[in-house]
Specification:
This protein is 14% helix and 44% strand. A hairpin with a 2-residue loop joins strand 5 and strand 6. The longest helix has 8 residues.
Length: 191
């Protein structure tokens, strides 16, 4: 029989070893189901990115909407990638990657990178960044980043990255909401 006592870091077994905070999470009643979470997430408008890297001599990438700025100084961003993605292993091994913020002109590109197609880069206009990461031409903005941390978060990995190079255009960014893609330039201001 194991006796748990609370301490500042989580719980402690009767043998004196610390348990992780996962035990505390396991004690929490089940939360909302997957469909409920999808319904909630559909209420949140996000940008649309394609995250790319090189796997040896082959460019790889996937569509990602879990992207955010962390800090302006030093310039730091994060992206979250599901560990079951076919691109995940090469992203995890990479030292650098590119985050391409999709423009309204790139719906076909987003659709391509949202699939499990074998060669998503076939006939695609791109160029290598300073550290070799694939930068997609036609994007609203592009950045090449150095991966600094990989944080495991359940089914995903959060890549915390230092921005090393950026390219910003006048192209209007694409946004995603409720399962659809929209023109980010047609937003109206609230009074």
């Amino acid at each position: 029989m194991t006796v748990n006592t609370n301490n500042a870091n989580g719980t402690r077994n009767d043998n004196g070893t610390d348990k992780t905070n996962e035990a505390a999470v396991d004690d929490v009643p089940a939360g909302p189901g997957e469909e409920q979470m999808k319904a909630v997430n559909r209420r949140f408008i996000t940008g649309v990115t394609v995250v790319t890297t090189m796997d040896g001599e082959h460019p790889k990438g996937l569509a990602v909407n879990a992207f955010a700025s962390i800090s302006l100084s030093p310039p730091t961003v994060m992206v979250c990638v599901q560990r079951t993605s076919s691109t995940y292993e090469c992203l995890f091994r990479a030292s650098h990657l590119a985050i391409n913020i999709m423009s309204t002109e790139q719906l076909d590109v987003v659709t391509r990178f949202a699939t499990k197609s074998a060669d998503k880069f076939a006939e695609l206009d791109w160029e290598p960044g300073r550290f070799g990461s694939p930068l997609l031409n036609g994007s609203s903005a592009r950045m090449e980043v150095e991966i600094r941390e990989r944080l495991q978060a359940s089914t995903h990995t959060v890549f915390v990255c230092r921005v090393v190079d950026v390219d910003v255009t006048d192209r209007i960014p694409m946004v995603y909401s409720a399962g659809g893609f929209f023109d980010g330039g047609a937003l109206t201001a609230l009074s």
